[in-house]
From TrEMBL, chain A:
This is Glutamyl-tRNA(Gln) amidotransferase subunit A. Belongs to the amidase family. GatA subfamily. Its EC number is 6.3.5.7. Residues 24-465 form the Amidase domain. Pfam families: Amidase (PF01425). Keywords: ATP-binding, Ligase, Nucleotide-binding, Protein biosynthesis, Transferase. Allows the formation of correctly charged Gln-tRNA(Gln) through the transamidation of misacylated Glu-tRNA(Gln) in organisms which lack glutaminyl-tRNA synthetase. The reaction takes place in the presence of glutamine and ATP through an activated gamma-phospho-Glu-tRNA(Gln). It comes from the Bacteria. The gene is gatA. GO terms for biological process: translation. Heterotrimer of A, B and C subunits. PANTHER family: GLUTAMYL-TRNA(GLN) AMIDOTRANSFERASE SUBUNIT A (PTHR11895:SF151), TRANSAMIDASE (PTHR11895).
TrEMBL record, chain B:
It catalyses: L-glutamyl-tRNA(Gln) + L-glutamine + ATP + H2O = L-glutaminyl-tRNA(Gln) + L-glutamate + ADP + phosphate + H(+); L-aspartyl-tRNA(Asn) + L-glutamine + ATP + H2O = L-asparaginyl-tRNA(Asn) + L-glutamate + ADP + phosphate + 2 H(+). The lineage of its organism: Bacteria, Bacillati, Bacillota, Clostridia, Eubacteriales. One of its GO terms (molecular function) is ATP binding. The gene is gatB. Allows the formation of correctly charged Asn-tRNA(Asn) or Gln-tRNA(Gln) through the transamidation of misacylated Asp-tRNA(Asn) or Glu-tRNA(Gln) in organisms which lack either or both of asparaginyl-tRNA or glutaminyl-tRNA synthetases. The reaction takes place in the presence of glutamine and ATP through an activated phospho-Asp-tRNA(Asn) or phospho-Glu-tRNA(Gln). NCBIfam families: gatB, PRK05477.1-2, PRK05477.1-4. This is Aspartyl/glutamyl-tRNA(Asn/Gln) amidotransferase subunit B. Signal peptide: none annotated. It holds the Pfam family GatB_Yqey. Gene3D superfamilies: 1.10.10.410, GatB domain, N-terminal subdomain (1.10.150.380). Belongs to the GatB/GatE family. GatB subfamily. GO terms for biological process: glutaminyl-tRNAGln biosynthesis via transamidation; translation. InterPro entries: Asn/Gln-tRNA_amidoTrfase_suB/E, Asn/Gln-tRNA_Trfase_suB/E_cat, Asn/Gln_amidotransferase, Asn/Gln_tRNA_amidoTrase-B-like, GatB, GatB_C_1, GatB_Yqey_C_2, Gln-tRNA_amidoTrfase_suB_CS.
Length: 486, 480
């Protein structure tokens, strides 16, 4: 039995029936990490000893007959911009290379509370800025389907870890598609929840109005189980929204009859690889076959969304990253006076992409440029939101490709930051509008997985899960497996 | 008349009286061990998220209403981005675009005239940390330390229109502002603890001109008197610069209390703060009903209380102004009046004795031990004739320092008046025998000679004799 190929709910069943212990599962995962990590490099930090201790403690509770969550004893990993108490949290940046938070993020706390076992922290693009995990301040992560290709970004480590069987599920963060695009490249499921649904306390901010934490899993049932734990109001986070959280597992029914699905034509026009387009059309036909009504719709301001997003996210990032100045935590490069210390610390601590965005953000927020760029970007953001509001009056769901192409080769786009950014072109409008969206694998093209993006109304994650589950149950396209094995 | 006119605007930072900080649960208590009142939020640690303290919104609204401002029903927080070691997040959270209160005013009285100074805005912001320099000042120290206890303390910044014309007006404005904030319970307004700080923007221009001159900003003034002096000095300095044919340089200047001059602190252009909305905090939404509820909690303010003292008790405007300039004094007056219903006498004692002793000791009323009950019983003792006015003043000094009951002081020190004829007759006889010239003068019709003789009796009894009784007995004796 290959434990690391099983889904969370399958492992959970085995644990429940006492056919296996959490310690055994955790050991198996750690062993597997040992074997494949040289190739994949999904982890910044592996916390083996802690993981085994947690696993044993869950086993003990189980042996005492305690009522346990379906996540109890399941090995997970968390992307490295989400705080973990006593464990290094670096944002894959040299400037935070030694930062050990004295607190857990709310999501970390909730998952620990549910008994999930933390295997380690996943690699990412530095401060979640990038599309390939090549902007990590430490090393590149590789795509488990093809080691010469990128896993996507910024949560590339978190997606690769699930795809390579190095964790049963992971948490990533999504500012511009950074959960969905790598999920699509790595053949796993990634969901960006509605803005405000999952607490951001303990998430190291990139762009506060766009960031969201979300799960990466192998199947839809797992996604529901993780959402059940991490969604919901947190009084410590001002942006957290107080709404009822349903039991997402109850949404898992095979039924899309009468569901109205919009296909935004702007997402099928430029730059979309024909092979990817063909796979997406196949998924559309399948859904129609199952009773859904699919129609072309228009989101007319889509073409302006990437520019607006780049301006807004850079503006917010330039401010959010100001605290890394060498005074209180992280890297400090000693210098004669304070100002030189600030400058040296920041020029040595940050990588190129981060610096580029800090410069851009500083520029667009400066008094002379504020109206022309930042305010204009906010106006575009409003128009993008209105586009979605309009179509969601008639349609229950939007279906699009997750990314214009499958995973691209390492180093292909490193020197063309805008081309790199374009790989998020279908994801970005969702962040501007704060909507929930999911990437679901749908088949392969030349040995690489294709991702299907589903976008729903705010707080309607349930519909995403229902459609995902229906597709999962009625086709064999949603679980591509990388050839990589032990 | 000077041919120049000063244009002065004040920016006053007031610390709000809350138990916890603006966006976290850390204590706001003053004077604790450095960095003992900090948490991830006020230290700006990565991943920390803050939540607005509702009490701050209530106090800021109250202050705004008391300053006749309009209150915004939808406002938010912005970030002011700049680099400084005492700034944990690399930005300060403030209200740049939409202050909670705006378009207010304050009436001040200078030289018997009432003048209205408009208030542009009052906005909420957080205090950064505080630097301590090992060498005493930033220029000559090898190391600096940061105390983040202050970081995230809730402030309101109250900005006046540049309608103040002199140091005296500035002082009057600050005194009135302080009184209002104290009355409403919005702040402790303690300048020595930094809960009230003031920066002054000063420029001068030829009388009649409507364009503004180049301004300087003066900082580091630690009393209202210092504000007045600093402004007066700076106005003179700028006039001298202009008269000499030079240009005033836009800069920040510090007030050097010892030398009585302003000195250039830094000479750089205004930084670009790159302000924008803080998306980690939710906007503040207030309903009209809630704002009216807050308005209903505002007590009687200094102006109205002053008017009441003048109209109901006939106090002189000057006295009423001073007594109502501080809530503590006004309450002391009211409480004394409950036990001794003679407003003018109480006012006289407060204006002369109480304020004299407070000023001499550079003290606030709460630091003195005298109570309203104590003053009332003292005044009753004087009224009954148990002690003289003069002895009363001595007793008051003891009450001020030790807080004892006046009757006890009088008893312990044997200070009560001697009105008993038996006790006085011998002293009177001696005074008559020892002062034949004055006796003769009186008998020959020089009425004023009796005053000297009374004085001699008072002296001999160490002030304890009842002067009325002595006068009467002396006249009887001399006209026998
Ligand atoms: Zn705090």
């Amino acid at each position: 039995m290959q434990l690391n190929r099983l889904s969370v709910h399958q492992l959970s069943e085995l644990l429940k029936k006492n056919e296996i212990s959490s310690e055994e599962i955790t050991k198996d995962y750690l062993q597997h990490i040992d074997q494949v990590e040289d190739d994949i490099k999904a982890f910044v930090t592996v916390t083996g000893e802690d993981a085994l201790a947690q696993a044993r403690s869950v086993d003990e509770k189980r042996s005492r007959g305690e009522e346990l969550s379906p996540l109890a004893g399941i090995p997970m990993a968390i992307t490295d911009n989400i705080c973990t108490k006593g464990i290094k949290t670096t944002c894959a940046s040299q400037i935070l290379y030694n930062f050990v938070p004295p607190y857990d993020a709310t999501v970390t706390e909730r998952l620990k509370g549910a008994g999930a076992v933390l295997l380690g922290k996943c690699n990412m693009d530095e401060f979640a800025m990038g599309s390939s995990t090549e902007n990590s301040g430490f090393f590149n992560t590789r795509n488990p389907f093809d080691l010469a290709r990128v896993p996507g970004g910024a949560s590339g480590g978190a997606a690769a870890a699930v795809a390579a069987g190095e964790a049963a599920f992971t948490l990533g963060t999504d500012t511009d598609g950074a959960i969905r695009q790598p999920a699509s490249f790595c053949g796993v499921i990634g969901l960006k929840p509605t803005y405000g649904y999952v607490s951001k306390t303990g998430l190291i901010s990139h762009a506060s109005s766009l960031d969201q934490i979300g799960p990466i899993t192998r199947d839809i049932t797992d996604l529901a189980l993780v959402l059940n734990v991490i969604c919901g109001y947190d009084s410590k986070d001002s942006t957290s929204v107080s709404v009822d959280v349903p039991d997402f597992k109850k949404n898992l029914v095979c039924d899309v009859k009468g569901l109205k699905i919009g296909l935004p034509k702007e997402y099928f026009e430029t730059n979309l690889s024909p092979e990817v387009a063909a796979k997406i059309q196949e998924a559309v036909r399948k859904l129609e076959e199952l009773g859904a009504v699919c129609e072309e719709v228009s989101l007319p301001h889509t073409e302006y969304a990437p520019a607006a997003h780049y301006i807004i996210s850079s503006a917010e990032a330039s401010s959010n990253l100001a605290r890394y100045d060498g005074v209180r935590h992280g890297l400090r490069v000693e210098e004669e006076d304070v100002l030189s210390m600030f400058k040296k610390t920041r020029s040595q601590g940050f990588g190129d992409e981060v610096k580029r965005r800090i410069m851009l953000g500083t520029f667009v927020l400066s008094t002379a440029n504020y109206e022309a760029y930042y305010v204009k970007a906010l106006k575009v953001r409003n128009l993008v939101r209105q586009d979605f509001d309009q179509v969601f009056k008639k349609y229950d769901l939007l279906l699009t490709p997750t990314s214009p192409s499958t995973a691209f080769p390492l180093a292909e786009k490193v020197n063309t930051p805008l081309a790199m950014y374009q790989s998020h072109i279908y994801n970005i409008p969702v962040n501007l509008a704060g909507l929930p969206a999911m990437s679901l694998p749908f088949g392969m093209v030349q040995g690489l997985s294709v991702g299907l993006q589903l976008i729903a109304r705010p707080f309607d994650e349930g519909t995403l899960l229902r459609v995902g589950y229906t597709l999962e149950q009625s086709t064999d396209q949603t679980r591509p497996e990388p050839a990589l094995s032990r | 008349m000077s041919k120049y006119e000063a244009v002065i605007g004040l920016e006053v930072h007031v610390e709000l009286k809350t138990k916890t900080k603006l966006f976290c649960g850390c204590s706001t208590e003053f004077g604790k061990e450095p960095n003992s009142q900090v948490c991830p939020v006020c230290l700006g640690l990565p991943g920390s998220t803050g939540v607005l303290n509702k009490k701050v919104v209530e106090l800021a609204t109250k202050a705004g209403l008391a300053l006749n401002c309009e209150i915004g029903t939808y406002t938010w927080f912005d970030r002011k981005n700049y680099y400084y070691p005492d700034l944990p997040k690399g930005y300060q959270i403030s209200q740049v675009f939409r202050p909670i209160a705006y378009n207010g005013y304050l009436d001040i009285d200078v030289n018997g005239q009432t003048k209205r100074i408009r208030i542009t805005r009052a906005h909420i912001e957080e205090d950064p940390g505080k630097l301590a320099h090992s060498g005493g000042s930033i220029t000559n120290s090898l190391a600096s330390f940061v105390d983040y206890n202050r970081s995230g303390m809730p402030l309101i910044e109250i900005v006046s229109e540049p309608e103040i014309r002199s140091g005296e007006e500035a002082k009057a404005y600050l005194e009135k502002l302080k009184a209002i904030l104290e009355y409403t319970g919005v702040s402790d307004v303690k300048m020595e603890q930094g809960s009230l700080r003031c920066d002054a923007n000063v420029s001068v221009r030829p009388v009649g001109s409507t364009t503004l001159g180049t301004k300087t900003e003066i900082k580091n003034m630690n009393s209202f008197r210092a504000v007045q002096r600093a402004i007066e000095y700076e106005v003179e300095r700028q006039i001298a610069v202009l008269e000499y044919g030079d240009k005033v340089v836009q800069e920040t200047r510090g007030w050097d209390e010892n030398r009585g001059i302003t000195v250039s602190m830094r000479n750089k252009e205004n930084p670009d703060y790159r302000c924008f909305m803080d998306h980690e905090l939710t906007p503040i939404e207030l309903t009209r009903e809630w704002i009216e509820e807050v308005r209903a909690t505002i007590p009687e303010l200094p102006d109205s209380r002053r008017k009441r003292l003048i109209e109901e008790y006939g106090l002189p405007a000057y006295d009423a102004g001073i007594i109502t300039s501080s809530l503590a004094l006004a309450e002391f007056f009211d409480a004394t009046l409950q036990k001794f219903p003679d407003a003018k006498t109480i006012s006289n004692w407060m204006m002369s004795e109480l304020l004299r002793l407070l000023n001499a000791g550079n003290m606030e009323l709460h630091q003195a031990k005298v109570t309203p009950d104590g003053l009332a019983s003292l005044l009753n003792l004087i009224k009954k004739g148990t002690i003289s006015n003069k002895i009363g003043k001595e007793v008051f000094e003891i009450m001020f320092k030790e807080g004892k009951d006046p009757e006890q002081i009088v008893k312990e020190k044997g200070l009560s008046q001697i009105s008993d004829a038996g006790q006085l007759s011998q002293v009177i006889a001696e005074v008559i025998a020892n002062n034949p010239k004055s006796v003769a003068d009186f008998k020959s019709g020089k009425e004023q000679a009796i005053g000297f003789l009374v004085g001699q009796v008072m002296k001999a009894t160490k002030g304890q004799a009842n002067p009325g009784v002595v006068n009467k007995m002396l006249r009887e004796e001399l006209t026998k």
